[in-house]
Design a protein that fits this description.
about 250 residues
């Protein structure tokens, strides 16, 4: 099941997301998610590890039918305050989703794959319940910000001590191992530890810069390709039995 955020974790995460100094980074991430996933109004999405519901709100604003799932009741309580009855919320784990195959148009794991016990099983489940596309938003192991977080964790207990960071290549290898060679695209944001100033913010929004593999947040889109497996079946054919198999012209006459 992985690490489940407790009450203090949930409160701290909500404070972080509401802090004005983090608003630009959060906006970059949400823009990237929507630009890459391109959710269509009226279609459905499952947010696996929805946390306090930050992404749920953005999806609802796009007119998407939203379902959120998280193992932490404290995270879900905060999410419920944000979305109310506009979204369906479930308590559950990424490795065992309580939904039928192809239940949603899209599935996403946004900074949640880092905290699961079995990332391969979690991805298999996401690919199982989604029909069209799966979006992964992960903390990039090659980013300077991620290195700073790991170093800080040596001296201070942080939530990132429990997280597993991923590189783009690790994710692509994992995806290929699960579902083979399917269309995969990626971009990264938050290239610099500090994005203060209009010039830096303009650089961060550049699609050219987002092709650099060193941003703190990696967005990866997987387009699911339908696969069909043929199963050989035994062909049975019953012939009509003839009463007399001897041709009439060879018949012996008495």
């Amino acid at each position: 099941m992985g690490y489940v955020f407790n009450f203090n974790d949930a409160v701290a995460y909500e404070k972080w997301s509401c802090y004005p100094g983090n608003s630009f980074s959060a906006d970059l991430e949400s823009r990237l998610i929507l630009q890459m996933l391109k959710p269509v109004k009226g279609e459905s999405i499952l947010d696996i590890g929805c946390g306090t519901g930050l992404s749920l709100v953005h999806f609802l604003e796009k007119g998407v039918q939203v379902t959120g799932l998280d193992p932490s009741p404290y995270m879900l309580d905060i999410a419920l305050q944000k979305v109310g009855s506009r979204a369906d919320l479930y308590r559950g784990i990424a490795e065992d989703l309580p939904f039928e195959d192809n239940s949603f148009n899209y599935a996403c794991l946004i900074t949640s794959l880092e905290f699961v016990d079995n990332p391969e099983k979690a991805l298999r489940e996401a690919f199982r319940v989604a029909k069209d596309r799966v979006f992964l938003g992960v903390l990039n192991s090659y980013a300077l910000k991620s290195i700073q977080r790991r170093v800080k964790g040596i001296f201070t207990e942080t939530i990132y001590n429990r997280a597993r960071f991923y590189s783009i290549w690790e994710l692509k290898q994992l995806i290929n191992r699960i579902i083979g060679d399917v269309p995969v695209s990626w971009r990264t944001v938050c290239q610099f530890p500090s994005s203060s100033g209009k010039l830096m913010q303009k650089i961060e929004k550049s699609k050219i810069v987002q092709r650099f593999p060193f941003g703190a947040f990696t967005g990866m889109l997987i387009t699911l390709v339908p696969r069909f497996r043929a199963r050989p079946l035994a062909i049975t054919h019953r012939t009509k039995r003839s009463v007399d198999t001897v041709p009439s012209f060879n018949r012996l006459k008495p």
